[in-house]
Amino acid sequence: MGSSRAADADALLKAILRESATEVLVFDADSLRITHANPAATRNLQYPLKALKQLTPPDCLAEADVHVFRSLLAMLQSGKKRRTTIGAHCCRRDGSRYPVEAKLFRSVGQGRPIFIWIASDVSQREATRQALAHSASDLHAIVAHIPGMAYQVLRNPDGGTSLRYVSAQSAQLLGIKPPALRAEPARFFELILEQDRADYLSRLARADGGHLSFNWEGRIWMEAWKDVKWVSLRVSQRETPDGLIWDGIMLNVTKSRLAEAEIRRSRVQLAALAAHVESVKEQERLHLAREVHDDLGGNLTAIKIGLSWLMRHLPPGEANLQKRTAYLDKVVDQTIDAAHRIASSLRPPVLDFGIVSAIEWQLRRFGRNTDLACELSAPDAAIPLGPDASITVFRIVQEALTNVSKHARATRVKVALAQHRGELRVTVTDNGQGIQPAHGKNDGHGFGVLGMTERAAALGGELTVQPAKRRGTQVSLRIPLSATPPSATK
Predict the structure, then answer these.
(1) Would you state the CATH architecture of domain 146-252?
(2) Which fold has domain 351-480?
(3) Which of 51, 95, 308, 431 could staple 472 via S-S, CB 3.0–4.6 A?
């Protein structure tokens, strides 16, 4: 009965060894010759069992591990240890290696001392460890080279927040070393300029009080460098088993902010210069118009009067002289009309009667020259517009009508003026072919539109060009009724 149970146990043990993925080697304690190997060992080492029985464990180990293996065997032989573990590299038959973690202990089999080697292939675990090590190394390299400070804010389950991670750039960006900032995140608030703290606190409140855990741009005072920096916080959040985490980066945007300020300053200067140039041009046009109307017109009138006197005092019977004098009188009339037309083009006198009258005069003239149907919609009450703003609006409408005649292929144009909430709104709408979407206003064909836009901007207004509701193009102008162009001398 006892022998039967032993046989059953022996069979069970062999079945377990046969199906196990763990390598098992049994070798003689004196000769170290392998006496038994399970299928996992023969499979991993790539030796058939018969060939494996001709080897010893040191034959299957990397050279660097053999010395350690023999030292451990000696300790087991002497009885100093009953079992031990070893991390080593096994050598396959083809020369390749794989890492193992093995247990080694001494036992007795069939009356003879033996050693048993039980090893687990840890190749996958080692590959994973190396991959994680590389990932961590790569991550640290990336973080070390970003032009800013990376950080993590953790909201604990109890509602408190803490700085989980701060990169080394905090010392360079804020003048605070990472350990100090992690210990007291609110120190960042002390750096913020007084003017920007209200905005910071309002955003902080929307982020439930987590310092450095929201999107914000503002200025900080660097006492160490006696300088002001612009910083930008950009954050994303995610749920983790530890709590809510904000992953953020703080960037030094001082250069871009200064560049933006310089661009804005340059645009203001350019707008002032453009307004000054336009003002000088209009003053020169007004001067020329008066010169043409007063001086040239006065001289032509004097010539007209002289020719009339001459025609009355010509000797009777001088038909050729009378005919020649009548021709000159007609030329003088045509020249007077041309002088009036040139003076009106330079600076229409009708502008003195208001912008509505000036645009009405312009539309009548435009309709006569182009045969387009023209319509004007304007309030009955006078529009309180200053002289400079009036001439600007008049020139913008004039340019818009010129574009209609040149490009629109329209049959009808409508100009509408309206006052709304302290603004003058002007629209010029045609029923032509419409604007081409591919053409921008700065593509080399839109300097007229660009000029109108700059004129509007000089008055603090806005001009847009877009397709009309049905067909054609609509030019829309919006300027404050109190608009005055900026002085170029400021």
Answers:
(1) 2-Layer Sandwich (3.30)
(2) Heat Shock Protein 90 (3.30.565)
(3) 431
